[in-house]
Amino acid sequence: DIVLAPFSAPGKMSGDRDISSVMGFSGFGKKARTFDLDAIFEQTRRTAIERSLLHIFSTIARFMLSLCELDLFCLFDFFRKQESGSSSDSSSDSELIGPPVPTQQDDDDDLVGPPLPPGYTGSTAHSDDDDEGDNPVKKIPDTHEITLQHGTKTVSALGLDPSGARLVTGGYDYDVRFWDFAGMDQSLQAFRSLQPCECHQIKSLQYSITGDVILVVSGNAQAKVLDRDGFNVMECVKGDQYIVDMANTKGHTAMLNSGCWHPKIKEEFMTCSNDGTVRTWDLNSEKKHKSVFKPRSFQGKKVIPTCCTYSRDGKLIAAGCQDGTIQIWDRNLSVHTKFHCRQAHTPGTDTSCLSFSYDGVTLASRGGDDTLKTWDIRNFRNPVKLATGLTNYFSMTDCCFSPDDKLLVTGTSVKKDEGNGKLVFFDRASFERVYEIEVSSASVVRCLWHPKLNQIMVGTGNGLAKVYYDPVKSHRGAMLCVVKSKRKEKQAETLTQDYIITPHALPMFREARQRSTRKQLEKDRLDPKKSHKPEPPVSGPGRGGRVAAHGGTLSSFIVKNIALDKTDDSNPREAILRHAKEASENPYWVAPAYEHTQPEPVFAEDSEEDEEAEKEPEWKKRKI
């Protein structure tokens, strides 16, 4: 019998040991971990006291160090005043606490470099910087330039994405070329060229505000949208040209003149056409336009818009028309104009460009009447400023504002061999011609001043696209490609001959595929037979054991061929009948096969009726 000893408390260690010894095992498993809270609290208190004492000591040390520095400064100031001999000033300065106030001499001592010339003052040191800030001409980036060869015809369209990484150019040669500043080297070659609108001149190119798509406006009635690599994204629908009211058609029915993207909405763009309408489009719905604006003359007749643009906030739509008017609508109200100037430019001329300033108050217009005008849209009756004598031969000559809104830029046109096309800069406030750049011997058609790169892109009438920049004031853009050296031209590798390779032929019968001529030329060079220079032909009687062949000269060749010419110029019938007797006596080819079966030929005799029938005229003969 087993007698269990009683235990008083199940949680006590003595009772556990007694039970485990009686039951025959060592224990009840792992013990729970116990914590001494008093020891933990004591350790925490000591750590806090040590950290607080350390903080106090460091604060005291910093304070003592600052006092020492203050004493040194005061002592230095005292000796400096004693040496200068100004006792009255020293008594007043000695009462000041802190480091001495720097003087002009101290500033001169801090400058690094050669000694300054006599009479130099500190105010003149920053005069150049102040003048540069006040003078916007000094901000024009024209110290360097690169030339991109688009083609031989007029560059009529320029577009630069918002980041300034890619430039796209279009011209009268129907080509659109893509230029990547980061991928180009000093050879300045476009990485892609295409003709998106077949045989239509490119009128306008513009990147969207996100830079992922490009609007292409050409001489046809349908605008296109391409992606960054030139692939087609959308093509606007063409309207019905037999409908009188252009508001009832789904698209344009005549040649396009201009187009641009909305500055705030990335899916919306606008186009104007010779059908007398300005239409807005949505990138997601290509089957129909979004809204229609119809410019009207003073008599209410249809007029043709030649250029169009959005305001900077995208709330207004402006169009320049052939009758010399500039009409501005509210984007959400397409019926009546919000602003209308009836005599903005000479009637019958094409207003080539409209551009809003960055503050959204001023509108610049470039007219076909050789003028450049600025307008205040709050008082739209008369122009604020006017510049004349700016020759314009193109319907897409640009004008644009500088990034700081202080300058206005446009180009001038010239006839062939009659001068140079210029890029002209006007001060916006005074409208004085403050600067000029002679671009080339052809007209300046397009100009674009990118606000992020601070670089000016220019399209000319002789197929060039120039980029002006300043290494100090400009950023990225053209400066990325001019520092890269030209890539070495690779040797042209062509196949020596075409091989026909059957896909299911056995490897043992398959000929080795020759990929280039370079390796074959290297092998042939090592072969003594193939690399041996052929002997030149022997002229004359012969030399070196070699006899000259007949016909080595032109005269001997002609004589030899005349002697060998044995052609029979006789009658071919007689030449054939020459062998008739021999063929009938000694048949060899056809006659022996039909020797026993061939009948004798029997020919019909001519009758009198046949002779009379032959004598009758053709119209009397009976028709069968």
From TrEMBL:
This is WD repeat-containing protein 70. Residues 603-615 have a biased composition (Acidic residues). The gene is WDR70. PANTHER family: GASTRULATION DEFECTIVE PROTEIN 1-RELATED, WD REPEAT-CONTAINING PROTEIN 70. The lineage of its organism: Eukaryota, Metazoa, Chordata, Craniata, Vertebrata. Belongs to the WD repeat GAD-1 family. Residues 84-144, 511-550, 585-624 are annotated as: Disordered. It holds the Pfam family WD40. Gene3D superfamilies: YVTN repeat-like/Quinoprotein amine dehydrogenase. WD repeats lie at residues 148-180, 249-291, 298-330, 354-379. Keywords: Repeat, WD repeat. Residues 135-144, 511-535 have a biased composition (Basic and acidic residues). The keyword Nucleus does not apply. The keyword Repeat applies. One of its GO terms (cellular component) is site of double-strand break.
